[in-house]
Amino acid sequence: MTGKRVLVIDDEDDIREVAQASLEIMAGLDVIVACSSQEGLKKAEAEQPDAILLDVMLPDMDGLTVFKHLQANPATRHIPVILLTAKVQMSDQRRFAELGVKAMIAKPFKPAKLAHQLLEVLGWNS
Amino acid sequence: MNTSLRVLFVEDSEADTQVVLQELCKGGYAPIYQRVDSPVMMQLALQQSQWDVIICDYLLPSFSAPDALQILKTSGLDLPFIVLSGLIGEDVAVEIMRAGANDYLFKGHLKRLVPAIARELRDAEMRRAKRQAEASAFQLAAIVEASEDAIISTDLQGRVLTWNPGAERLYGYSAAEVKGKSLLDLIQPDSNLLSAATQHSGTRAIDCRQVIQQRKTGELIEVLLTVSLIREANSRVVGFAVVARDNSERQLIQRMKDEFVSIINHELRTPLASLQASIDLLLTGKLGDLSHQGVRMLNIAAKNIDRLVQLTSNILDFEGLSSGKITILKQPCDIGELVNQTVATVQSTAGQQGIELLVTTQSVSVSLDAERISQVLHHLLMNAIRFSNAGGRVWLEVELRDDGKVDALALSHRKAIKKPYVLVKVKDEGQGIPADKLEAIFGQFQQVDASDTRRQGGAGLGLAICRSIIQQHQGTLWVESTIGQGSIFYLALPVQRVAVQA
Q: Which residues of A touch B329 (CB under 8 A)?
């Protein structure tokens, strides 16, 4: 076990559950979940996770706005954010990278790959 | 040589008929004839054969010339009808002419016969030509009337001559409102379209472009416009033909397509993501043991979900590339290194299928979008592996072509490839591709064989995507193949700056 904790913010129940299971089973991470951007912002501040896996398309607020809120809050600014998105394009990737997004992971994802990518991006591989 | 003439005689006397025939022969005709002397016989003759002229005796035992004329009218045929009589009063002659006969002659004075027939044949021919012209004008008018497009004709000054219902719908003006008015003042002020058309009067369709025009209400509309010249028979230009198509409908379709793509993107891929991840998690065995049969079933499900995921990715890629939403971002990149990286990603698949990969590469710096070119190389390699039999070999070679010689390879395939360029060859020992499919496989939803879709997976979009990517690099992608021996895919990419190492 890494002892690290990841917050998964996604409005789709099933995606949340499989992402949680993937990270717990394949990477040995602790996972907390939020099903809306508001809940995500609150939990990020209160629970202080080591990383956030954030869906780009949330019904109440798009992922980028959530990210900007996280950046604007001194209590959450330091938490690395990885975006989960249905389509990853180089141009988007660069734009998000410039804003400070740590990485983008494409949906659909394979559990092992999701876990591997997350660990690698956050430098938790060792 | 005598002119053949098909004559129907309505006549009871064969002797009289022969006299007329002689006269016709003398006049330069070679008559083919039939003689009838009853209404029934005449009707039959008109139905069964074609005639140039009818020569009718005024009075027959069973009927008369007016009756015969009526039978001709009823048949709907337009044939010269000449009345011949031994005795006929002027009042009767006038009456029969009024009833529709073309001429009348006395049997004793046949001199006028040949000129009368010649004149009547000419007139009949003119009437036929006129009827044909009217019919064809009628057909054209029907097409113009029914057209969804606006079809307008103007004189050289751009004043409206004709205005079809399509134009009424598109611009909101009725034909009566616009007749004689300046077209451009109505629909496109400040345009030099027609004057430009006059200057290009040598060509046929002189302009086809997308323009913004305005409707009667002042609303602006996007229109695809073609202007061409109207010429008279002596090729003198007399006006303009303007065809305008409402382009906003196309844009509606474009929007619908975008929405559809967005639905595929989100609504289809989100459930697929859950399916894929949950089945893969089950297959790890970390959620408990599964029976052998259970694992097999899950593997089938996983394989088919992978196919669906690949298909949606391909549809999105293809749509993105063709609509310009996916942009190619070129940066200097070592293609040798890119090839090695891509080969590494297919190595395990090749190994599982017992295929040997033989790679010869060299370091060449090429300006390219590494992600997209890697996608193309990956697709070509996976195709080569998929279509190879176990124990087969797949070759990949990278070669810089910059030897200053005439490029025999490019010439032999009529590919205009400017040197220097990098040529990547992917060769397999598969079943090969029939000659008539060598181009088609680069089209959308194309496979060599429909059964390939089921056997090998994929929707036949992969090569269309590859070609689109290569074209956006100003490169060329093509294939050579021999049935039973295998295929070679060639990928040529232009090289700007070159750094070569052996």
A: 90-91
Q: Decide if A109 and B276 are in contact by the 8 Å CB cutoff.
A: yes
Residue B250 clears pLDDT 80, i.e. is over it: no
Contact residues on chain A for B276, CB-CB shorter than 8 A: 108-110
Answer for the pair A15, B270: CB distance below 8 angstroms, yes or no. Answer: yes
To which CATH superfamily is domain B147-246 assigned?
PAS domain (3.30.450.20)
- The 3-state secondary structure of B45-78 reads HHHHCCCCEEEEECECCCCEHHHHHHHHHHHCCC
- The nearest alpha carbon in chain B to A110 belongs to B277
Q: Is some CB atom of chain B closer than 8 A to the CB atom of A97?
A: no
Superfamily (CATH H level) for B3-137? Response regulator (3.40.50.2300)
On whether any CB of chain B is under 8 Å from the CB of A98, the answer is no
> Digits of tens for pLDDT over chain A (126 positions)?
468 999 999 988 888 999 999 999 999 999 999 999 999 999 999 999 999 999 988 888 888 889 999 999 999 999 999 998 876 565 667 778 888 888 888 888 888 889 998 898 888 875
Q: Does A12 touch chain B (CB under 8 A)?
A: yes
DSSP code, position B262 = H
Domain residue ranges in chain B: 3-137, 147-246, 251-323, 331-494
User: Do A82 and A52 meet the contact criterion of CB atoms below 8 Å apart?
Assistant: yes
Closest C-alpha to A18, from A115, A93, A121: A115
Q: Closest chain B residue to A94 measured between Cα atoms?
A: B329
Domains annotated on chain A, with CATH? 5-118 (3.40.50.2300)
* Position B358 pLDDT exceeds 50: yes
The ipTM assigned to this model is 0.76
